């Protein structure tokens, strides 16, 4: 047997309290509906939190009229693209007292043209306690990570969510999976294929394990972690190489007698389809795929791979030959207890539309193309 590329040193995941899970699920639903909620940090005062995406200007007016000091929270990546200095912080806070609806829209979304210079607004030296978790909550809802917050007067009737629950939510809840369906699904190029659906405990979209042929689960299994790409996988978009990678992986698994493709519900490197379309619009203005994600306020890559490791565990797979060009996938699987015996290269020629995209993957993401 080949020596593993990375020796795993897994740690057992802790169970997230069901009350905390339900609390965060409801909080995400409230934010996606445009309603504010009460955020309770681990230390310090509670805050009323509202997303700037779909923002109701009346909340700003109410907070200001009540004598409160509302703040706008932005990620450091968004702030840098606005020309602000995060001063080593993960979150930047701006005073919102002199802002209008147009200002807020421009701060949240780089596709909205501001009517005045961002440099005119003062930067708070100290974001409120729990500010990073507040924006993580918006990311979990696939919303732009930009928020308006004001000190909680306890007068508003709204849902409360605790910082500790938010911090545990993304990694832990997403990795708690239940197999909910399995069926034979003959494919055009791989007739002996089965699909197993896994539902996450956080109420998110199901992940799929596509079992091609008859993989030997007792040894290293040819495996690909494939994050969903509606535009590339289904519509055969030429902006990326995702469709080629999906179909190429299934073809190789069929030729080798079997393999497992994990189809993960984390579109657009984890920012969601709507934000991926926004990123495309920014790319059409000259940004590359990494800068576009950061201009929107996200990290360059927001994906997590603990769900993939849990799917493999439930399928009885402990060792894989990983079909990827992304070293981070090797590291992530190994950190979650899956032995990566071999990295199998998986690249395809450019098509006349995705040369810059592939160049960025190699040059800035470190993909081995």
Written overview of the protein:
By secondary structure, this protein is of the alpha/beta class. It folds into two domains: 18-170, DHBP synthase (Alpha-Beta Complex); 176-266 and 303-363, Rossmann fold (3-Layer(aba) Sandwich). It is 35% helix and 21% strand. The chain contains 14 helices and 14 strands. The chain has helices at residues 18-32, 57-65, 76-81, 101-108, 131-140, 163-174, 230-234, 242-255, 267-270, 273-284, 289-295, 306-315, 327-335, 355-363, and strands spanning 37-40, 47-51, 71-75, 91-95, 123-124, 146-151, 160-162, 177-184, 193-200, 207-213, 221-227, 258-264, 319-323, 339-344. The chain has a seven-stranded mixed β-sheet, sandwiched between helices. Strand 13, helix 13 and strand 14 (339-344) form a beta-alpha-beta unit. Helix 1 crosses helix 6, helix 5 (131-140) runs parallel beside helix 6 and helix 10 (273-284) crosses helix 11. It is globular and about 65 Å long. The two termini are 26 Å apart. It catalyses: GTP + 4 H2O = 2,5-diamino-6-hydroxy-4-(5-phosphoribosylamino)-pyrimidine + formate + 2 phosphate + 3 H(+). This is GTP cyclohydrolase-2. GTP binds at residues 224-228, 245, 267-269, 289, 324, 329. Its cofactor is Zn(2+). Its EC number is 3.5.4.25.
């Amino acid at each position: 047997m080949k020596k593993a590329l990375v020796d795993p040193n897994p740690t057992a995941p802790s169970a997230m309290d069901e009350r905390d899970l339900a609390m965060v699920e409801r909080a995400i639903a409230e934010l996606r509906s445009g309603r504010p909620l009460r955020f309770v940090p681990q230390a310090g005062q509670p805050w009323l939190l509202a997303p700037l995406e779909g923002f109701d200007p009346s909340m700003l007016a109410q907070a200001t009229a009540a004598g409160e000091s509302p703040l706008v929270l932005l990620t450091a990546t968004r702030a840098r693209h606005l020309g602000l200095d995060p001063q080593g912080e993960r979150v930047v806070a701006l005073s919102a007292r002199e802002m209008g609806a147009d200002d807020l829209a421009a701060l949240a979304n780089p596709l909205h043209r501001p009517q005045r210079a961002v440099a005119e607004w003062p930067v708070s030296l100290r974001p409120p306690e729990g500010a990073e978790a507040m924006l993580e909550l918006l990311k979990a809802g696939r919303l732009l990570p930009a928020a308006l917050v004001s000190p909680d007067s306890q007068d508003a009737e709204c849902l409360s969510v605790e910082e500790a629950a938010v911090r545990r939510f993304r990694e832990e809840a997403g990795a708690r999976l239940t197999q909910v369906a399995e069926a034979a699904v003959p494919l055009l190029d791989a007739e002996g294929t089965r699909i197993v659906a896994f539902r996450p405990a956080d109420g998110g979209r199901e992940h799929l394990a596509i079992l091609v042929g008859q993989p030997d689960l007792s040894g290293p299994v040819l495996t690909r972690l494939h994050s969903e790409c509606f535009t590339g996988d289904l519509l055969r978009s030429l902006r990326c190489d995702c469709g080629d990678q999906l179909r190429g992986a299934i073809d190789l698994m069929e030729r080798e007698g079997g393999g497992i493709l994990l189809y993960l519900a984390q579109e657009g490197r984890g920012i969601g389809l709507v934000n991926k379309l926004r990123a495309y619009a920014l790319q059409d203005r000259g940004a590359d795929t990494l800068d576009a994600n950061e201009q929107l306020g996200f990290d360059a890559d927001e994906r997590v791979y603990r769900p993939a490791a849990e799917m493999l565990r439930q399928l009885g797979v402990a060792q894989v030959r990983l079909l990827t060009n992304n070293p981070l996938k090797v590291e992530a699987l190994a950190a979650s207890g899956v032995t990566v015996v071999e990295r199998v290269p998986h690249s395809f020629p450019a098509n006349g539309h995705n040369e810059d995209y592939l160049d960025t993957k190699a040059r800035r993401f470190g993909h081995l193309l």
